[in-house]
Each structure stands twice: as structure tokens, then as C-alpha cells.
């Protein structure tokens, strides 16, 4: 449940249960979701059979797993996974709700641009996975009628690409104060507080640019590393969350940045410990090539850290240009470096308003969507 979609599922499920909904969670990877029951159905497709997870045959294990259970609504968090209940007949299609966290068609478009520009090597499995996902999504948009989306950006993308107008159910997040503050969530053995963590990482007297994320190419990390070379020497990038195999090609491409200490890679880190990194940062930057929303922007702003993100992405739902950060053109490293330097000049630890993004608000609106679906009205016409 550490992925962005997984965190949304976990938080929304807990809030929905608090509002009286009886929620079963299928295909989860963790049971720590506020009492929500978790089940998986793709475990049968392992080893050589794993490639079948990207085909419509996944509807068979779905049917076997769900059995004769009856649900008022099946709420899928991707178009691809919605194909399984749609084909299995587990619920009437008018009772199927698809929650859109983005579109693999647009991920594929950006991936192709990176490959064509020599920034990424061509990978047949990546191409196959994305094309298979796009094919599934087309079938779902042709066969389903109820859609919600996590951001204004995804709403606009869906209208443009598929001619469908989903209901906006914005992502929320849990402020650090509601969790007891940064120090309460730090794993045993880690120093707490900005000063202590800076000292531990050898960053005293430096201006820290923080990146948090996986999937380095899509999150724009190579362009951020390149932009670091245009910034004054006291700027340092702390990149949190990537696996070694994701760092290696970037370090080979920009060896001087890594050898010179301009980039500090931090491996995969539990979500609970991220507040310590936010607390020591001067700027948060994730210049994604495709970003449906970006919970990490909210987490940074909640810690008083200005953000830099990309135009034409979900960052626009969160970042107000010039007020709590800056928005720049994708792949424009000159703009990126300039925006980082300007953001670093913001008043240290200014408190930014994030009150409109709360899981409770999202869950209440989602319950209204459920009511409309169950009553036979669907999501058409809902604002």
C-alpha cells in the first residue's frame, strides 16, 4: 500500500467505513487499512504466467475469488482492473464505478517521446504492458458509464481522450499534525528534526532540494539532476524512494553530479518517515512528465516547503504559481533551475493552506456518488 493508488485506496476505504459503508478491498498488498478486509486474486498468475496479468484472462481468477458474493457497487481504481468485473458479470455494469488515477495512454505517449529522444532505451515489455493496458481501458470506456477522477487534470484528460466527463473526487491527505507531528512517525534509530537529519546526511549549510518518488523517468528525475548543474554550488538534491536499478542509469548519465555530492540518493523509505525529510527541505521538486495528482506535493506544502512541478499535470491542482511554488514546462531544465532558485527564496517554513484536500471530504462526496449509482442515476450529471 505504499504506491500512490494504494494509499488512496487505504485512506478512502477507512473513511468510507467510518461513514457506514461495508467495504471489502480486493487485490490489496497490505492488511493495515483501518480494518478493511483485503483479498488478492492474481496470486495464481506467477512466474511464466505473470505476463497473463496484462490480458483479459484475469477475469477468470477474479470470478473464482469473488465467488457468489453480492455487492451493491464494485469500485475499481483503474480502468484496467475494471475489465475483470465487467467481463465476469460479478455486478451489473450500471453498478460498476471506475475511479481514474490517470491514463496509461498518456504515460505511453511520454515514454515514446523519451525513447525517441534517446533519453530511455526501448523496452519491449514496457511497451507491451502499456499497450495492453490501453487496450483494456478502451474496452472499459466503451462498456461502462460511471467514472470518477482524482484531479481536474485527469477530468480534462478523460474528456479529451475518451469523451467522458468523470465526477471529480479529489485525493486528500493526512496532515502531519494529525499524525502527531514529524517526530512521532520516525523509525527507531533515525534522528529527528531538520537540523539533526541535515547533520546526519552532511548537509549543514546547504540548500536542500527534495525529490520523493519512484518511476524516475516519469517523475522527471533525470531533468532535475540536469538542472542541478545550473544552480549555485550550495544547492544539493536529496532523492528519496528509488531502487538502485533506477538510480544507476541516471548516475551513469550524470556522473559528476553524483561524485561531486550534488545528488544524495536515499533508498526506498517507509511513508511514515518522509516527514523528517520534508522538514529539512528548502524546496520540493518533482518535475513529472506525467502526473495525475501528486500526494507528495501536499505533504511538502503541509511541512511549509514550496513546490516546483510541471505544467500540464496534476500539479496544477495543488501548486498556485508564485504563491506556494512554481510550475514549469516539461523537460525545460533552464526554467526548472530558475524556479527552484526562486522557490528557495520563499520565507522559510511558510505555512501553506491545504485544507481543501481531506479524505473525509472526498469520502462524503463519494458516498453521494454511490447513492446516485444505487438509485439508478449513475454519475451522469453529477458535479
Keywords:
six-stranded parallel sheet; globular; Rossmann fold; alpha/beta; 14 helices; 383 residues; 39% helix
By CATH's scheme, which homologous superfamily of the largest domain applies?
Glycogen Phosphorylase B
With strands numbered from the N-terminus, the spatial order across the biggest sheet is 9-8-7-10-11-12
Give the total of domains. 2
Oligomer: single chain
Rg computed from alpha carbons, rounded to a whole number of angstroms: 21 Å
Averaged pLDDT, please?
86
Structural class: alpha/beta
Q: Main sheet?
A: 6 strands, parallel
CATH class group of the largest domain: Alpha Beta
Count the strands? 12
Specify the number of helices: 14
* Uncertain parts: 28-37, 178-191
- Describe the global form: globular
> What percent strand?
5-15%
- CATH architecture descriptor of the largest domain: 3-Layer(aba) Sandwich
CATH third-level topology of the largest domain:
Rossmann fold
Alpha carbon gap, first and last residue: 29 Å
